[in-house]
């Protein structure tokens, strides 16, 4: 059973940056597809980006391309989301997820990111 714990959320002004972390326990990420998702209350969850951990390949939603970057630390079994040029519409709860496929099997509890205008 994989446990995922996100951290790094908070309040930031528009144009600012934050880095989210997702620490995994119970298994190593090396066999998984991992990703970041976000959800605004009352709206559907949307995928921010994913990484095939073993290959290190990433893909991003159009609305974050050029602003957000997913990276990993193999030794720490930790996934990161670097968010730059933040916009008020990026305000959401951000979730880390992992799975054998992009359908994702494990989810963290989320961390709130609030971007003020």
How is the secondary structure organized here?
Elements: E1 3-7, E2 10-13, E3 18-25, E4 33-39, E5 46-52, E6 57-60, E7 68-73, E8 78-83, E9 92-99, E10 106-107, E11 111-116
Parallel strand pairs: 2-11
Antiparallel strand pairs: 1-3, 3-8, 4-5, 4-9, 5-6, 7-8, 9-10, 9-11
Offer a concise description of the structure:
The protein is an all-beta fold and 117 residues long. 0% of the residues lie in helices and 54% in strands. A hairpin with a 6-residue loop joins strand 4 and strand 5.
How would you explain this protein's 3D organization?
The protein has no helices and eleven strands. The mean pLDDT is about 95. By secondary structure, the protein is an all-beta fold.
Helix segment tally: 0
Alpha-carbon distance between the two ends: 40 Å
Give the total of beta strands: 11
Radius of gyration, CA atoms, in whole angstroms = 13 Å
The topology string of helices and strands comes to: EEEEEEEEEEE
β-strand percent reads over 45%
List keywords for this structure.
mainly beta, 11 strands, 54% strand
């Amino acid at each position: 059973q994989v446990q995922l714990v996100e951290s790094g959320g908070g309040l930031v002004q528009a144009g600012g940056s934050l880095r989210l972390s997702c620490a995994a326990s119970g298994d190593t990420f090396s066999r998984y597809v991992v990703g970041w998702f976000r959800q605004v209350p009352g709206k559907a969850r949307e995928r921010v980006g994913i990484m095939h951990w073993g290959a290190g390949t990433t893909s991003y939603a159009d609305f974050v391309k050029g602003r957000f970057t997913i990276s990993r630390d193999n030794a720490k079994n930790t996934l990161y989301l670097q968010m730059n040029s933040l916009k008020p519409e990026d305000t959401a709860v951000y979730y880390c997820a992992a799975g054998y496929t992009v359908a994702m099997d494990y989810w963290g509890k989320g961390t709130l990111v609030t971007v003020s205008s």
